[in-house]
């Protein structure tokens, strides 16, 4: 299964007009980069959220949230939100705002030599 296009479209609408926004296909899903930093994305049917590492454990207690884990070792600051956790427009927008606020605070990955 690829990624849920309806969720990707919801993200596109929520981020419309955002400066320095780039879409990239990765991890078998799609990521939305802002200021060269991954902010939010879609993995299968889940919303992939970047948060500050300090918020990670608190956010795991929310409905439908689990760690983002590609390698068997979950990464702090990356979460998956199931459709159950973003059913309403209000819930979805809350997650998008959280990702946008976190994007302002987190650093990007270091680019490899040019």
How are the strands of the biggest sheet laid out side by side? 1-2-3-4-6-5
The major β-sheet equals: 6 strands, antiparallel
**Arithmetic mean pLDDT:** 92
Helix-residue proportion: 25-40%
Based on CA inertia axes, which overall geometry fits? globular
Share in β-strands: 25-35%
As a whole number of angstroms, the C-alpha radius of gyration is 13 Å
**Helix/strand/pairing category:** alpha+beta
Number of helices: 3
The CATH architecture is: Alpha-Beta Complex
- CATH C-level class: Alpha Beta
Order of helices and strands: HEEEEHEEH
End-to-end C-alpha gap: 34 Å
Structure explained in plain terms:
The protein has a six-stranded antiparallel beta sheet with strand order 1-2-3-4-6-5, covered by helices on one side. Helix content is 28%, strand content 27%. The protein has helices at 5-15, 56-59, 89-105, and strands spanning 21-26, 29-34, 37-43, 46-50, 65-67, 78-81. The chain has one domain (5-105): Aspartate Aminotransferase, domain 1. The protein is built from three helices and six strands, in the order H-E-E-E-E-H-E-E-H. It is an alpha+beta fold. The radius of gyration is 13 Å and the shape is globular. The model has no long low-confidence stretch (mean pLDDT 92). The longest helix has 17 residues, at 89-105.
């Amino acid at each position: 299964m690829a990624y849920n296009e309806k969720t990707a479209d919801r993200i596109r609408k929520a981020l419309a007009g955002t400066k320095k926004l780039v879409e990239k296909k990765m991890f078998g899903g799609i990521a939305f980069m802002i200021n060269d930093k991954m902010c939010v994305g879609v993995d299968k049917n889940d919303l992939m959220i970047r948060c500050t590492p300090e918020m990670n454990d608190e956010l795991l207690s929310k409905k439908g949230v689990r760690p983002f884990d590609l390698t068997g070792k979950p990464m702090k600051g990356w979460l998956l939100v199931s459709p159950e956790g973003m059913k309403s427009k209000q819930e979805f927008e809350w997650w998008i705002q959280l990702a946008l606020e976190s994007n302002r605070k987190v650093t990007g990955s270091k680019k490899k030599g040019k």
